[in-house]
Predict the structure of SAM dependent carboxyl methyltransferase.
Amino acid sequence: MVSNGRMVLIIHGRESEDPTTDRDHNYNWEVLGNAISCMVSQGLIDEEKLDSFNIPYYIASKDDVEDLVKKEGSFTTEFIDLIAINTLDITRSTPESRANIIRSIIESIISTQFGEEIMEKIYDKVTEIIVEDSKLGKEVTKQVSIVVVLKKIK
């Protein structure tokens, strides 16, 4: 990148500084974990496969991004802000569409670990959990993105 060049990044983020308190960004993983645990309890997935399954996952906050930019040293931050989108306002935001979104992101990892033959049952359970959460008002209501404009230092 040329000196003084700009780069715009839009990345998945979180509002809270404490990653353990921001339920919205953990919700999809929580639902998936509950569905897989249910399959284990029904004997459809081997417990050893669940015990050996680990996906490190971290969503940055605005401060995390700013700190990383400073630490890396090649850019300055010209602009940074959060955008929160109310997912309930999205017209296609049905429990089924949310389950399909989860599936589209992680299916290859899940099928490699637990087997292709169990995929339909896992995502039927994911959909069932999301439907139930929706009835109870426990579903995710927003997604957060961080928009940052970086300027290349000379």
